[in-house]
Amino acid sequence: MHRLLFTIFCCAFLANVHAQTTFSVSFPSTQSKTALDGRVLLILAKTNKPEPREQVSDAVETAQLFGVDINDLKPGQTTIVDASVFGYPRRSLKDLPSGDYYVQAVLHKYETFVRKDGHTVKLPMDRGEGQNWRTAPGNLFSKPQRISIKAGTKQSFAVVMDQVNPPLEEPKDTRFIKHIKIQSKRLTEFWGRPMYLGAHVLLPAGFDEHPEARYPICINHGHFPANFDGFSETPPPANMDTTDYVERFKIHGYKKIVAKEAYDFYKKWTSKDFPRMLIVEIQHANPYYDDSYAVNSENLGPYGDAIMYELLPEIEKRFRGIGQGWARFTYGGSTGGWEALAAQVFYPDEFNGCFAACPDPIAFDAYTVFNLYKDKNAYYAEGPFRRTPRPGQRNYLGQVKVTLEETNHRELALGTHSRSGDQFDIWEAVYSPVGPDGYPKRIWDKLTGEIDPKVAAYWREHYDLLHILRRDWKTLGPKVAGKIHIYCGDMDNYYLNNAVYLMEDFLKSVQNPSASSEVAYGDRAEHCWNGDPTQPNYISRLRYNTLYIDKIMKRIETSAPKGADLKSWRY
């Protein structure tokens, strides 16, 4: 009897193992006659509006995602996605309930790089889209198709990626906005192939009429800009549609508000009393992310030096910048906030002030909600009898949107070896040393969250901005005193205010010299609060390019060296 039950159990177990849902994904020779490398992403959603690939997110409504690395995949050859493939938010195909789904596949193409450091790696080169697997030109994808999954039965679905993302059109120059692109000698040497830096430059009113004028320059750091945003010479139409709704701000008609702010900026920019200067947005997308964090990195290469000593001088040469540290300023929010402060810290003589709004973690002992140096696990607070998940995002009421584990698992499904093109992976790519395989050393196990203290120690010495300021204040202090301005909402969605609190404590207490800095918080303000307590966040976040002008002008007046040009650009 026992033997019969055991036999029945084994048969049922084997039947269940073989009764799996699988997908075979391929591309035809009409899309590529050569074999391809990359990451096959399979997405399942409950609706096809928008397409499934547009529904992958940190939201609870996210589509289901699975990812498989492919090497030398030939036309017509299939990649199998089965229950063994890691997924997000469900880890395996076997965990999907029965029901109707829309399925879509994407091939995020990788390129082979033979780097100067001797490593050969495969990565998704940016193709002008700002490192976005959904829209990257040349990426293959399938049309969404409706399927029915019956859990516990053997099913196989064929998905053919017979579509391709088209190339993107380069932005065109206007009267005020000019575009520049240079090949970087430093980055080309590091990556072993031509690498470029670009920028969008907003020219001051009267630029052509005043050829004798030379201008201060402001670098507005941030994510990849397709064009100079937030500036328009025409007002929004009076009958512009205002039915759009932004859940985050609980407001209708936000697109019209954005358009009006862009036109208002144009009117201020061209007004008689507005200071004449250059404002620059940099394009430095790379094989890991939509920007480089504007610093030198073992994995990304010398982006900091390339921007500072190749791109910036070329901009100042072409557009008559003053070209001296007293006439250069940086500002930005989020990623751009970190970059603004990092540029001031790593190139202290080259800038005369930074305005860092809602910066990415500027102290790693408050790396969002945990201490990178003391905690053992990034995903869980651990006690002797309990593990509590750490939150990853919240709203202004503190309601949690996603956990750190969930957002990191989404990245893991999107790409191995820090190749997701997303937030935690780019921090890892920028801050980590190169691993033996040529890819960034993991700061923590991407699956379990277990932190590597040796990698954390490397991060501390090279990119922890609070630690670096504290460690090097004797030499850095005299160069950055009076230049640091930091702003953050005290309900920042990503808990970035926690590191700002630690930085504030240091800046308030440090002596010889005093920091003479500014740190301010927005009450109940969420991400992107940038220092204006008189306006709601949905307005102030659109005013970076005018918000700090008065402080910049005061700094110039009080710190410019004797004989400096303070007149040619004040017409």
What does this structure look like?
With 571 residues, the chain is an alpha+beta fold. The chain has 3 domains: 22-164, no CATH class; 177-232 and 270-363 and 473-559, 3-Layer(aba) Sandwich (Rossmann fold); 365-461, no CATH class. Helix content is 26%, strand content 23%. The protein has 14 helices and 28 strands. The strands form 8 sheets. An 8-stranded mixed β-sheet has the order 13-14-18-15-21-22-27-28. Strands 2, 3, 5, 6, 9, 10 and 12 form a 7-stranded antiparallel β-sheet that branches. α9 crosses α10 (473-480). The protein is globular, with a radius of gyration of 26 Å. It starts with a helix and ends in a 12-residue tail after the last helix. Mean pLDDT is 95; it is low at 4-17.
What secondary-structure arrangement, pairings included, does this model have?
Layout: H1 2-18, E1 21-26, E2 36-45, E3 64-73, E4 79-81, E5 87-88, E6 99-109, E7 111-114, E8 120-123, E9 140-141, E10 145-149, E11 155-160, E12 163-164, E13 177-183, H2 185-191, E14 196-202, E15 217-221, E16 245-246, E17 251-252, H3 254-269, E18 278-283, E19 296-297, E20 301-302, H4 303-318, E21 328-333, H5 335-346, E22 354-357, E23 380-382, E24 387-389, E25 391-394, E26 400-403, H6 404-414, H7 423-431, H8 453-463, H9 465-471, H10 473-480, E27 484-489, H11 497-509, E28 518-522, H12 537-540, H13 544-547, H14 549-559
Parallel strand pairs: 1-11, 15-18, 15-21, 21-22, 22-27, 27-28
Antiparallel strand pairs: 1-4, 2-3, 2-6, 3-5, 6-9, 6-10, 7-8, 9-12, 13-14, 14-18, 16-17, 19-20, 23-24, 25-26
Helix pairs in contact: 9-10
